[in-house]
Fold this sequence. Notes:
Layout: H1 6-27, E1 40-42, E2 47-48, E3 61-65, E4 70-74, E5 80-86, H2 101-109, E6 115-116, E7 121-125, E8 128-132, E9 135-136, E10 139-141, E11 147-148, E12 154-156, E13 167-169, E14 178-184, E15 188-195, E16 198-205, E17 213-221, E18 227-230, E19 238-239, E20 242-243, E21 246-252, E22 258-263, E23 270-272, E24 277-283, E25 287-293, E26 301-306, E27 332-338, E28 345-354, H3 357-368, H4 391-412, H5 415-429, H6 431-446, H7 448-457, H8 462-476, H9 485-503, E29 527-533, E30 537-540, H10 543-563, H11 570-589, H12 595-621, H13 624-628
Parallel strand pairs: 3-7
Antiparallel strand pairs: 1-23, 2-13, 3-4, 4-5, 5-10, 6-9, 7-8, 11-12, 13-18, 14-15, 15-16, 16-17, 17-28, 18-27, 19-20, 21-22, 21-24, 23-26, 24-25, 25-28, 26-27, 29-30
Amino acid sequence: MEKRSFLFVCALSLSFFFINNYLFDQKTPPTEAVSALKKEEPSLDVKPLLVSNNSSANEVFYVLENEYQQIVFSTKGGAIAEINLPFSSKINQKSVVLPIQFDTTIEEKNAPNAKFPLNSYKTFENGEIVTKDPKLGGYTPLLRRTLKNEDGSIISELSSEYYAFNIVSNKPLDETSSSRISRMGEDFIEFITESNGHKITKTYTIPKNTPYTFELEVKVEGNAGDLWVTSGVLEVELVSGSFSPLLQYYTVDGKGKKTIEKIKLPKVDTTLKTVNALWASNANGFFGMIIDPVDGPTAQLKVKSISGDAVPSRLTLINREYDLYPAKDYPAYQILIPYKKESTNQKFISYSGPYSSKVLDSVDVALSNPKTGIGENPNFSKVVVIQGWITFITEPFSRFLYILMQFFFMITKSWGISIILLTLALRIMIYPLNAWAYKSTAKMQNLSPKLAALQEKFKSDQKRLHTETAMLYKTEGVNPFSGCLPMLIQFPFLIGMFDLLKSTFELRGVDFIPGWIENLTAPDVLFSWHYPIVFIGTNFHLLPFILGGLMYLQAKIGAMQQNQKGPLTEQQQQLKTAGNVMTIVFTFMFYNMPSGLNIYWIFSTIFGMLQQWFMIRRFQNNPKILKKS
């Protein structure tokens, strides 16, 4: 037997594997490569065709709004400057978006940046266009916006070239370009823009029964070649503490097979050729924008990489004096879809909102209706994927866990209680395995005197000691490695739960204990302070320390049980050391983990201790069970 037992190595390797995964996830956004069959080339710089300058002095904003979205249009090219998603409330009962701590902090400490829209605007009411002022709070921005100081002065002005649904070209800017509104109603607006010999008419329409969507019809008079339609530049959404932008497209091959493909996050502007994309998606984690060229698949896509300094996120406003969230750490990405040269009129459908399977399924159904949609299922719901480092292993576990959680949620109407019941169900399912492992551990404890005698007898002959120890295990029918098996079985579920909390919109912003656990996909916050501390940040999270205390108590109970059987063997001593190390490691490792994951592991530990107590009583009162097994 090796001096470092398998149990010791197993326990520590699991801990450090999880740390590795967590740190990797915290610092590195997903970089899944596009298929090698698809060619990537640096693209030419694309210029806004319909924008004459970056000054906002002459810019006028118009708003279309319903219970799902507030869309802010600019007279610069008739592009979209803002898409703001209303929080669920009595006014917006159909919205599924909940506020999180970040929204509250911005509203309390940086009020000018919590106004929606950001500037005064015009809208259509009672048969006429009226001017209105922005309101404080009530929304979260999907797109990055201009940032302001508390006095209203500009910190960083968002260039109009980063607006959504710009028409861009490789040709130089026409300084005489102009854009004007031609007509507007409660659910539509039309812009006409003239530039570089083009006359481009954009008509936006918000469907009545399709959540978080709008339609755009573009009519080009003049040369329609080399024109591209841009996605917006999305706001940053920290998912389990990490920045996780995700670019995807839905493609169809020559045989009609449709698949979702991930795009590697580029460091330079990139052209993807021969993609045959039915639609493209630009997501920030829980939210995103899908652009669907309804007239048929597009052969190419462009992806533009934008420095975080050029388009800083609202996140940078938090503790700005300490640069807690440096702008450079949060770059942005645009997807560009080519305008078909042979078409003077082209229609696009955009979904801009939460990446919720339930909502996207309803959108697919609505768009499949020939009377209200395009008459074909766009399969937008395919955009929802489980994100993680080793999803090829953990995805089945994540999906299984979510199915169980949904079942318990139907009964309890509480996602927090559902996580607890899920943990209990898993503990019951793996009880036979735990019982088997405990019996093997109990047999090992009964062998302690014999193992101690062998260690004393052959202390000068390690090779003979290992041989005699192995023979004793074989004779007594004991597997010294069995104690690690339950942990190995639980580990994929733990990683699966972590990935699930990163990828399930329905859990975002959901509280469990108001005032403490207010977002299951983010760490709990007991209290906060202003000055950031290394690793700790500006918030105190209590759940990780509860977890560490329970793990320590569990290890102590196990040690007390072992001591009753005589002196610890070398393997038992190493396992005890591993348990103490894991208590410390897990406390720090889980400090910035989602509260939902902490709840899962806390109650897994509690139920594990109850199972341990039950098995101790059962086997100690019935020693014959050990002899039969």
